[in-house]
Design brief:
There is one protein chain. By secondary structure, the chain is mainly alpha-helical. Helix content is 55%, strand content 0%. The longest helix has 20 residues, at 38-57. The protein is globular, with a radius of gyration of 14 Å.
């Protein structure tokens, strides 16, 4: 089951909806959320799983050494989806 969580693919649209939506909701409801708390650490791990799934959708392995700068990471996360089935799974429907 854990393998399914880490090895899937996530489209650009669902990635940005799944990251910005909960972050905005939680930060408005609980302004102290952005302090280093257990909730913040859980959100960071959730965000890292989504980043890995987003890179899988663009057919990029996270172990590749070309992800050094923050700008490069933003460009990779907004890269167009690989249109066919790749080694990470089938193309997502949403």
């Amino acid at each position: 089951m854990i393998k399914k969580i880490f090895n899937g693919r996530t489209t650009r649209k669902s990635f940005f909806l799944l990251t910005t939506g909960p972050l905005l909701f939680i930060s408005f409801q609980f302004p102290s959320f952005l302090d280093i708390t257990v909730n913040f650490i859980i959100f960071i791990s959730y965000f890292m799983i989504l980043c890995k799934r987003r890179l899988n959708d663009a057919n990029i392995n996270i172990a590749e050494p070309r992800m050094h700068s923050r700008l490069n990471m933003i460009l990779l996360l907004s890269k167009k989806s690989y249109p066919y089935e790749n080694k990470f799974g089938r193309k997502p429907k949403f």
